[in-house]
Predict the structure.
Amino acid sequence: MKYLIIVIHLLIFCACSGQKTESPVEGQLSEESVVVVSPLSEVETYYLEHKQDSIIGSSKGSVSNGSLENGTLLAFEGANFQYFDTTSYLGGRAFTHQLVARTILDTYKILAATSKRKWFLMELSNEHGGKIFPHRTHQNGMSVDFMSPLKKDGEDYVELDNTGAQHYMLEFDNDGKLKDNPSISLDFDQIAHHLIVLDEQARKHGLKIEKVIFKMELRDELFATPYGKKMLEKNIYVTRNLTPLINSLHDDHYHVDFKRM
């Protein structure tokens, strides 16, 4: 079922994240005297045309029946983070409420001091919110998908981080091991660390984590880690009752809904 849902998604938003090759500047000057100014990429141009950092946004309705006004477009990448798919980004699926955007960026700044990992954002909301296939939520700028960090032999494993929309198709067993290669597994402690910092930064902006959607069978593995135990102490809620379909879809990533305090 997970495979079918994501195949449909891929048919709509093809995961072709390659960038155009920049052409050199032509002219009659020698190479030594020419200063080449690379044109902006399509992603950079899109960001400059749509970013509204100074405009206060408005989230209306619920995550499953809502809209977003003056949404904030997150940058495609920063010092230690990146959006997961070019086509999805250019399709207008990386907008969020301004306070959520600040929370996400502040969290990555904090993590940069303690982790060398590059973190990946997945889908957020449409520019004006509303339905965003195939998600049932993500409608009011308060929902975010975060790519689950992976490890192999105790070290960060990043080779699957740049697979674009196909990353949603990865499947992990109930121990958090990749079904196609059990030597690769979810890094539960880093997931928990990220969620703790995310909740701390959200509260500084008048928000809190309302819930985390993560495959139910992986909860015990998550809470068994050092940071997972701290998550329990902080009462960060991870859903306990999901439909079989929703449950199966949330192994390669974890979904976070925010709400105002």
Q: What stands out?
A: The longest helix spans residues 188-204. The mean pLDDT is 87. The chain has eight helices and 13 strands.
